[in-house]
Structures are given as structure tokens and as C-alpha cells.
Amino acid sequence: MKIHRLCIIGVGLMGGSIALAAKARGLCQEIVGVDRDGENLLQAVELGVIDDACVDAREGAEFADGIVIATPVGSVRPVFESLRPVWSDKAFYTDVGSTKSSVVKAAEAVFGEVPKNFVPAHPIAGRELSGVGAATVDLFLGKRVILTPLPVTQIRALEQVRRFWHSLGAKIHDMSVAHHDHVLAATSHLPHVIAYTLTHMLGRKDEKDEIFQYAAGGFKDFTRIASSDPSMWTDICLANQKEILAYLRQFEKELKAFGDTMEQGDWQAIFDFFAEAKAARQRFLDQHHQ
Amino acid sequence: MKIHRLCIIGVGLMGGSIALAAKARGLCQEIVGVDRDGENLLQAVELGVIDDACVDAREGAEFADGIVIATPVGSVRPVFESLRPVWSDKAFYTDVGSTKSSVVKAAEAVFGEVPKNFVPAHPIAGRELSGVGAATVDLFLGKRVILTPLPVTQIRALEQVRRFWHSLGAKIHDMSVAHHDHVLAATSHLPHVIAYTLTHMLGRKDEKDEIFQYAAGGFKDFTRIASSDPSMWTDICLANQKEILAYLRQFEKELKAFGDTMEQGDWQAIFDFFAEAKAARQRFLDQHHQ
Which of A190, A115, A102 is nearest to A149 (CA)? Predict the structure, then answer.
């Protein structure tokens, strides 16, 4: 595929990585980056990540034939509002939001119904770092990108967006909006909430007892996702509140049940529980390496 | 220091790594390995990790001048019982148990009081793999080893054990038995219980919805410790039951409070909570890299 002018709105980790990969693969003639953060935008130009810079989404997107909204999910609605006057039937539109029903709702609120050439997408890729300085050319290589097309979505736009993400090195999966938010609440949103909560609790304890210096590599890996961007994750909690809460409440129950089993001293049950969990993770690893 | 005959009881990940590091650093003339698992023991000989093999701890330790108990904590008491008839005042004894009060209790049960030349130790190092095949020569390099000497401990034995672990490349910290178990419950035992419980819950869900295929690298890191040895971790839960349960119950409360805040939709509070957790983890990283 050949894009004349690719517009990336939000040139952070995701947007910057899209730009780098699109350039490396010769996907487009020029890339215009839009960002509210002038310093970040300047850095994107200096790093050569984008060719042209713009603080206004409307202006940046006006003559583009491919537009990617790569802002945090909480900013998608105002972006749609900026784009509305220059929305073009000839371009394709996609995004990178970690929650999809909130993005769909934002589109419905602004446009009445979701535009036929907007295809919601979620690349299952990331790092705990943020900003254009953290962008890498291979962020999407071999990673999954979930598309959540709607009944109103135009086949042509779907195929363009599919090809776009595929060209960046990703493997494409289609899924319904609701199923996406349900699945991601389990494998991503709940683990983030747990990691933040544990790190918060132990952080207060560390101030008193200096426990962190006796933590090992396992702890470092376990809490890595608690270094993720707080504002992005507040957005996600708001956007997928119902699904996350349902899992969180279920997890509270399972944790309490585990504690009760420990209190009763049923060590055979504890062993079986650990062995089942280890086996489940092995299934995950086996799938992951396919 | 020069050890004539080093006896390692339990030649798994830890025992095997001790043997490899001791050999590489020329710490001892010969290493005898003791293991109940004949196949693992044979592998240790074939890999050249140990010089001499023995299935009986008493026989293996009899003429040794340095003895390391590197079995899971649940097997420490029977090992003490085997060693009792050949316990030598001229040798030093140490262990690698992840919980220390259970080891001290086992020693008291077998010997009346903790032998003056046994210095409990806990190397804060590990991998989620087990068995001698997972042993590495640098497992302890730059890692912390916590010693929990007792009032009855002989200064000479303490210095020998300190030099022993230091010679394997570790940084030595002294701590009381109770403080050790309190700190490790927070930074190691609780995270393991949480990771096992989450993986167990999502594993059941995966059987229905195949959610694992949409999990990202963050999930892989977060659940890594749920691939740890189930029997070792059952032992640890038993050995440090009280401390782990106290933290687990506190964590349940904090998770519930987070859920309540989400339910109320207080997004500023959620943001502050995430930002504080991220800052706490940064403090951990800063300490870790010192």
C-alpha cells in the first residue's frame, strides 16, 4: 500500500513507533505528527520521526489519506470533534486505544454513528515508557493488532486498515467491541490494577522498613507494569470501568478463598492450586510462542 | 578461604549454582552432592557440577568442613536429623531457605537449640526454573544474601559463612529471623501468591474464551513467578503462614478499597493512586541499581 500523507495524532510511544515503522517500510510519502505537547512534538521532528509537525488535529489531518489517532483513550472524543469538519470519505481512519467501547461511544457522540471509514484498532504492544523518545521501529513486529469493525464499517476501509497494520509487521485479529473489552480487562487491565495496588501498599511499608532493597528480580518483573503512565491507566479504568470492576471483584473473592485455604492449613489444596496455575501459565507460554 | 570438602545437600537450582560458583572461584578441593533424586544427582555428576555423589546426607556430610543445606524448606528438618550423628564442631553449616523461622524451629526441634556453627542464610536470587540443569555460575553475583545469626551463633562460624557467601559473589546483609520473614513475606511471598491466584483464575477463563492469546509482554512478566515450583511454594506458605496471611488480608482490603473508589468514579483519586505507585516503584528501581 502507498499512503501519500499519513497523519498521526499523538506522537508518543505508540504514534512515534507507528511513524518509525511506516518510514522504515516505505509505507508513505510524508508523515505529519500532531501533538498538544509542543516539546514532545519538537523532539519528534528533531529525531526525524515525523516530517511535518502541527498542534492542531484538524489542520494536520485535512489533506491526509491515512489518519491514526494515537492519543490516550480519554482524548479521543475531542480529537473526533477537531476532525469532524475535515473528515474525508477518501481517507481511512484508525486508532490505538486500549479500550474499544469508549472509542465507539465517543464516535457516536460526535458523529451520530461511527463513521464508515473509521476502523477501531488496538495493538497489543507497548512498553512502560512513554513519549516519542521511547518509540521503537519494531514495536509492532510479530505483535497482535485487534480490529473491532462495526456493522456500519465499510469493507474497503477495513481492508485498508488491515493492510496498514499488517504492513507495520503486526498479526491482525478481528473481534467484537464488547469481546475485546472483556478479554483485555482480564489479561491487561486487571493485572495493571493489581500491580499498582501492590506497589502502592508496599511503597508505604518501604518508607518505614526499607523492604525494597531485599526484593529480587521476580518482584521487579511482577511490578513492571506499575511503572506505566498513570494518566493513560486512569483513562482506561474510566473507559472500561464495568468490565474491570467485575474482574476485580472476582479476583478479591479468589484471593480471599486462597487465604481461607491457607488459614485452614490445607496444604494439599494449596499445592494443587499452585500446580494448576503453573500449568495454565505454561499453556499461555505455549500459545505465545506459536 | 579454602574448604577441603564442601557438601551440598540438595543439588537443584540453588545447590547446583553454589557448586558451580565455588568451583569457578577455586573455593574448595572437592564437592560432594547429596540428593534424594537419583536422576538429578546423576545429571549433576555428568555436568561436572559435583565431584562426588551420595544419596545419604549423613554419609555425604561426615568428612566435610563446609555443609550447605539447599533443599526446599520443608525438607530441612529431616536433613538435620540425618546430620545429627555426624555433626562436626570443626565444620560450618548454612542453608538457603526462603523462610528462616521455620528453619530455626526445625533446628531447635532436632538439636534442642540451634547449633552454634549453623548460620541460617537466604540468597535473594533465583529463577523460575528448577533442577541442576537450571544452575548457573553467576546466580549469586551481585545478589544479596541475608544471614540471620542467633544469639547462640559462634562468631567464627558467622565469619566463615559470611566469607563463603561473599566468595560466591554475593553482598551480605545481617537481619533478625523475624524481620527476615516479615520483609520477605511482603516482597516475595505475597507477590507469588497473587501471581498464582491471578493465573489460576484466568487459566480457567482461558479454557472458555482463549484470552491468553491476546495477552501481551506485560502479562508474561507479571505472571512469570507463577511458573515457580509448586512444591517449594507450598512449603514456603506453610513455613511463613502467619506473615503471609497478614499481608494477604491487608492486600485484600486495599484491593477492595481501590474497587470502591473505581465504583464511585473518583478518577482524581485513581490517578493519584497510580502516580504514587509509579513513584514507589521508581524508588525501588533506584535502590536496585545502587
Answer: A115
Tell me which residue in A124, A182, A230 faces B278 most closely, judged by beta carbons: A230
For A93-112, write each residue's pLDDT tens digit.
999 999 999 999 999 999 99
Task: Kindly report the nearest CA distance between residue A61 and chain B, in angstroms.
Answer: 31
Same fold across B3-175 and B180-288: no
Q: Do A280 and B124 touch (CB under 8 A)?
A: no
Distances (CA, A) of A177 to A78, A114, A248: 21, 12, 20
DSSP calls for A220-285? HHHTGGGGS-HHHHHHHHHHTHHHHHHHHHHHHHHHHHHHHHHHHT-HHHHHHHHHHHHHHHHHHH
**Does the distance separating the beta carbons of B241 and A287 come in below 8 Å?**
no
So what's the pLDDT on residue A289? 65
CATH number of B180-288: 1.10.3660.10
Residue pLDDT, tens place only, A177-196: 999 999 999 999 999 999 99
Q: Which CATH superfamily is domain A3-175 in?
A: NAD(P)-binding Rossmann-like Domain (3.40.50.720)
Inter-chain CB pairs, A–B, below 8 Å: 298
Residue (of A31, A84, A22) closest to A57 by Cα position? A84
User: What is the residue extent of each domain of chain A?
Assistant: 3-175, 180-288
What is the distance between the alpha carbons of residues B66 and A118, in angstroms, rounded to a whole number? 70
pTM for this predicted structure: 0.88
Which residues on A lie below 8 Å from B266 (Cβ)?
none
**Integer Rg of chain B from CA:** 21
Half-sphere exposure of residue B163, counting CA atoms within 13 Å on the CB side?
A: 13
What rounded mean pLDDT belongs to chain A? 95
Three-state SS letters, B62-111: CCCCEEEECCCHHHHHHHHHHHHHHCCCCCEEEECCCCCHHHHHHHHHHH
Nearest CA in chain B to A260: B245
